Predict the 3D structure of the following.
Amino acid sequence: MGEPGRGCCPPMDLMRSESMQLVQIIIPVESAHLAVSYIGDLGLIQFKDLNAEKSPFQRTYAIQIKRCGELARKLRFFRDQMLKAGLTPTTRSATQAVTSLDDLEVKLGDLEAELVEINANGEKLQRSYNELAEYKLVLQKAGEFFNSALSSAEAHHREYTSNQGGESLETPLLSEQETLADPSKQVKLGFITGLVPRDKSMAFERILFRATRGNVFLKQATVDEPVIDPVSGEKVEKNVFVVFFSGERAKNKILKICEAFGANRYAFTEDLSKQSQMITEVSGRLSELQTTIDAGLVHRGNLLQAIGEQFEQWNILVRKEKAIYHTLNMLSIDVTKKCLVAEGWSPVFATKEIQGALHRATHDSNSQVDSIFQVLRTREMPPTYFRTNKFTTAFQEIVDAYGVAKYQEANPGVFTIVTFPFLFAVMFGDWGHGICLLLATLYFIIREKKLSSQKLGDIMEMTFGGRYVIMLMALFSIYTGFIYNEFFSVPFELFAPSAYVCRDPACRDATTVGLIKARDTYPFGVDPAWHGTRSELPFLNSLKMKMSILLGVAQMNLGIILSYFNAQFFKNSINTWFQFIPQMIFLNSLFGYLSVLILVKWCTGSKADLYHVMIYMFLSPTDELGENQLFPGQKTIQIALLLLALVSVPWMLLPKPFLLKRQHDRHHGESYTPLPDAEESLQSDANHDSHGHEEFEFSEVFVHQLIHTIEFVLGAVSNTASYLRLWALSLAHSELSTVFYEKVLLLAWGYNNIIILIVGIIIFICATVGVLLVMETLSAFLHALRLHWVEFQNKFYEGDGYKFSPFSFALLDYEEE
């Protein structure tokens, strides 16, 4: 984890994690809040929960945490309102910053009440506006119904009177006397007007017809533009309807159907003069409401802008206060309730800084009693803390993804900084592709300040976090590309002319038969003359395969050597004598010897078959080697190495369980032992096997050692073979690059057509970027990751520790966004 304000390269020791100590701090209640706040600024103490048996509601500061949660809810409400209004919180400092939680609580309460009231009034006004807008539509459309009905009735009447004569339109069909004599003959038609959603209009009409058995008359007219529904507030396409009915029962049925279909009903008059008057009144009220709504929106926008200017400060303050009270709840309170007792882990180097922060808190809170800081002795396993910077963090994360290092065991992250990008580059060796990767990474590195403050996507975030890893991968790829002499699969005579020339000026078929060595050996990397020859593939296969074995054996030896340093550091002589030594003997008797044979063969130019040598070393070690002999006395050395390998297996298996049993019996027999110093106690307990602290089961230990021995013996073979992936992926990368160059770019060039050439270049670029620079990069990265996690780290790395997670304001994440 990085330290803020330290710059790029702070002093650090990545080989072993920082020395940790368990500390106890006794803080007076009056200065506790300020002390925890200053410790949070430092970020160098991981507090232990001393109230684990208590529920969150039983703890001392539960009320304060509830208050902070309520303030956080109000801030989330403000953020949502600002996002809806299209505003973003500004980061500039406010003129009047609120420093007290009580003042902030009052201020946020007032602002929330005001904003809620503005929203409620705005919603009411908007609903009224939407209802009036619908009412206006009903008045217009329904008025059109009645006007058209009246005009058609007048036309019918004129036609009737012209034929029958005499009676006016107002003359009743039945005489007044008949009507009065028989009230049942009076027919009163009622009507209901409103709007119904267009997608429900057909169903609405069918249900009305069925419910009233056809005793209704329905007239609908479509509204051209969608209207805002007063209830939902969403834009909906609607139809204006008028339903004519007779009788109260029919009316009740129609009202229920309107309610079920979400149809909004509005009052309407038949009087034409009143209709025009009502339309004028509704239009006037609509304009008044629009003015009022606009004024409310301006006021709301000003209020939200004022909130946005101080939002970030308030948010940080609330999150800090909540974190402080969460931490205070982890502290145990004294019987007298005058002081709090804290326990936690801190690095040894941070002692003075922590004491200084505690003293400052006492002074600033005007407390009469200073805080007490003391180191406790313990046998508990401390957390693992590496001080890293922005360069080394990504490499340490690669190791931590496998498992966090046990306290002060050797950290593979130190070697990963070099070995990981190098093994990647062995599989990705092409200096053209390496330059492309480097340019892409330099973009992230140059703009890292700007990009670090932005929200990137998941993949971009991961790429940006590993920008320095990718930079080293690119640099090593350029280096191995020079060795392989490949630039997008094309060789160049960079360091000197080729050592080979054509024996016959007429020879065009570039083969090793037609070439003779005329100059000094090419000084660095593969001679460009090998490219395109019939023997190129056999030559490069042999070179890369042997090189993969050499690199693999070297890295596995490094892993075993680190297990020796772990044993020495933790004073574990059993692991030194019965793990490190037999493992070194077994690995190097077989595969170390193979590596020596490869080097001897390269140096002497021998034609010995190493497959034959290694196979018959096991099958018939006493047979003569004949032409496969590389040096005198080889047969004797092979027999000796084979015997050593055979001896090292029981050496690994048998002594360690018996010695552990004797060690346990000896410790178990001692009733009292002097308490060691704190640092010695931590180291010995962090390293020695836990058998001494639990019931010792010899059979379990023996089976565990048997599994470990079998795993190492078989792993020595499988892990060495696993390193051949370096050869396989390097060959695949090279051949894919050659295919894209020859079968796409050169093929397009050969047509002498500018369009085909442009298309060929585009396909070549897309194939290079998509396959070689993205998929092959990911593939080589994953294979390098596997080689480190499995083949390298399983030789020495336990990875069963836990990370140092200090209380730090710098590490606080935003609450739900």
